[in-house]
Design goal:
By secondary structure, this protein is α/β, with parallel strands linked by helices. It is built from six helices and three strands, in the order ααβααβαβα.
């Protein structure tokens, strides 16, 4: 099994473990783009004024996590990345299908999910579908 295939099936927690793993596998991951699936707020939540401080802090933390993962992969390690966002509380079939189509269209063989649970669950679904289809 290649490192790129293993990276698509490796579950990591926290930005430092993601960075460490990507750094160790960077030479293999440079062969094809990495699909980064990240969290975004649902459209109806994006423009709500004055969220409670805890919600505001959580939103900022998730946003920072997503931005840091993209920066680490593309700018720091020189990986080609393709971004896809999930803006629902739970990934839908459409979210997963969109990720599969994006991976197929761009040739991405590694899927990275960052942010809230929906993005991570969507990434697992996309990676599983790509693996079962020989992608």
């Amino acid at each position: 099994r290649s490192v790129a295939k293993m990276a698509a099936r490796t579950v990591l927690s926290g930005p430092s473990s993601l960075r460490t793993h990507l750094k160790s596998a960077a030479s293999s991951l440079r062969r094809s783009p990495c699909l980064i699936i990240s969290s975004d707020l649902p459209a109806d939540e994006q423009h709500k004024p004055n969220p409670p401080p805890a919600v505001k802090s959580l939103r900022q933390s998730i946003s920072d996590q997503c931005n840091r993962a993209g920066f680490t992969a593309s700018m720091e390690l020189g990986l080609r990345t393709v971004n896809c966002t999930v803006s629902s509380a739970y990934p839908t079939r459409d979210d997963i299908q969109r990720g599969i189509e994006m991976a197929n269209r761009t040739g991405a063989t590694t899927v990275i999910g960052v942010g809230a649970g929906a993005a991570v669950d969507c990434a697992k679904g996309v990676a599983s579908a790509l693996g079962s289809n020989g992608g």
